From TrEMBL:
The keyword Nucleus does not apply. Residues 1-29 are annotated as: Disordered. It holds the Pfam family Glyco_transf_34. The keyword Protein biosynthesis does not apply. It is a single-pass type II membrane protein. Probable glycosyltransferase that may be involved in the biosynthesis of xyloglucan. This is Glycosyltransferase 7. GO terms for cellular component: Golgi membrane.
Length: 459
């Protein structure tokens, strides 16, 4: 979202990819901590973080119990279905969608809204509701074909959300002019939380990220007790202290007071802060592998976790068990082989149910059956050593809209890689309609024969 890099922006070597926009660093192999450390932190000396001499902007904003007790009682006294829903926090003029107006007592406000609107807040089957938020810049793309690429990237997200019952908010408005590029996500997420109290999780996905496994569902039970989930590695965050130790381009954040306070503290290191220039210098000094001195969202996030006595660390889950966000350079060249292995799994004796045609409405059940068969076919392992479909393939550094890609990537590698990933994902969608792409780079499609892929004993 709003991904164009400023003119003259410092370009990061491909080995430590993180463009100075809203995109994120490359994802390393999740299957080996040692490999990840070598891949992401080689050459980076452990720096001394200059925190003890600085003011601490990270203390959470605690709710004002007296104020919350007063407005909660007034707003929810009439809150019941019988009274037409009653008054909720939306009737309180002090509650704002903007980042410059802190909200207190948010957990109680959400609970009161849910009581007033049980028909809207019920999760159904105990499943926590997820809202995906993504977006792009308000104006047309500068790169030829960029708008078409963004359209395909949007379609990919819409396909996944439709198949899995996830709401999608795709935003093309800059909600706070001063917070652009990589900081633009915070005002969008903040507004989404207030506008969607029924959503337990907000799932931020950068515009240049492709969902490449339409069968995979977020393992939300895994994150009980946590409020923020990012793709990262504890050994790199707390050991190597690398600014590429996690990825801020794809993350889950719980819709709760903790998250609102966290985003306030995060934004305090952004362009709205009078200390913005100083924070840029601080972050560059704190991370020896950071080569530009601008305060960006990802460095700020790592920095917040590194502080002694950080009030945030215990609620952050660093996910490295699967491709919650995967670096495209280590993925796109393997997609063809992954397709072949999945087809081989479906050809195995006793796998006729995986080949069976089904309605789109049956997708979740069919996906569960396919996922259950992965281990027996040797496809359960994710990452560069495994052959499970990558959940998210992130084209950080390619900048399809502006065209100002990282100088270490060629236009052909980015463009071809995105086409391969998008067609790979689209084939999984088209299959339920009886089609697939003619090949991995083709826009043409062809009908699928019955019993596709043909069983081994029928070939």
């Amino acid at each position: 979202m709003w991904r164009d890099a400023p003119a003259g922006a410092v370009r990061i070597p491909a080995s430590r990819e993180r463009e100075p926009t809203m995109s994120s660093p490359r994802a390393a192999k999740p299957s080996s901590s040692l490999h990840d450390a070598l891949l992401f932190a080689a050459g980076a000396a452990v720096s001394t973080v200059l925190l003890l001499t600085l003011a601490n902007p990270f203390a959470p904003q605690l709710p004002d119990a007296r104020h919350e007790g007063a407005d909660h009682t007034a707003l929810h006294a009439a809150g019941s279905p019988a009274s037409g829903g009653g008054r909720t926090f939306y009737d309180d003029p002090a509650v704002s969608y903007t980042v410059d107006r802190p909200i207190t007592g948010w957990d109680a406000k959400r609970a009161g809204w849910a009581r007033a609107h049980p028909e809207l807040s019920a999760a159904g089957g105990g499943v926590e509701r997820v809202l995906m938020v993504s977006g792009s810049q308000p104006g047309p793309c500068g790169s030829p074909g960029g708008d078409h690429t963004l359209l395909r990237l949007l379609k990919n997200k819409a396909d996944y959300c439709r198949l899995h019952g996830v709401q999608l908010l795709y935003n093309t408005a800059l909600l706070r002019a001063s917070m652009d590029r990589y900081w633009a996500k915070i005002p969008a997420i903040r507004a989404a939380m207030v506008a969607h109290p029924e959503a337990e999780w907000v799932w931020w996905v950068d515009s240049d990220a492709v969902l490449t496994d339409m069968d995979f569902r977020l393992p939300l039970r895994r994150y009980r007790g946590h409020n923020l989930v990012v793709h990262g590695w504890p050994s790199l965050v707390y050991g190597a202290r690398s600014w590429t130790s996690l990825n801020a381009g794809v993350f889950l954040i719980r819709n709760c007071q903790w998250s609102l306070d966290f985003m306030d503290a995060w934004a305090a290191m952004g362009p709205d802060s009078p200390e913005y220039q100083r924070w840029g210098a601080v972050l560059k000094s704190a991370f020896q592998d950071k080569v530009f001195d601008e305060s960006d969202d990802q460095s700020a996030l790592v920095y917040m976790l590194l502080q002694s006595g950080s009030p945030w660390r215990d609620k952050v889950f660093l996910e490295s068990g699967y491709y919650f966000e995967g670096y495209w350079m280590e993925i796109v060249g393997r997609l063809g082989n992954i397709t072949e292995r999945y087809e081989a799994m479906e050809r195995r004796p006793g796998s006729a149910a995986l080949r069976r045609r089904h309605a789109v409405a049956e997708h979740v059940a069919h996906a569960e059956a396919r996922n259950a068969a992965l281990a027996g076919a040797g496809l359960a392992e994710s990452g560069v050593n495994g052959w499970r479909r990558p959940f998210v393939t992130h084209f950080t550094g390619c900048q399809p809209c502006s065209g100002q890609r990282n100088e270490h990537y060629t236009g052909a590698s980015c463009d071809e890689g995105m086409r391969r990933a998008l067609n790979f994902a689209d084939d999984q969608v088209l299959r339920a309609y009886g089609f697939r792409h003619a090949d991995s780079l083709s826009d043409d499609v062809q009908p699928l024969p019955f019993d596709y892929p043909a069983a081994a004993d029928s070939q």
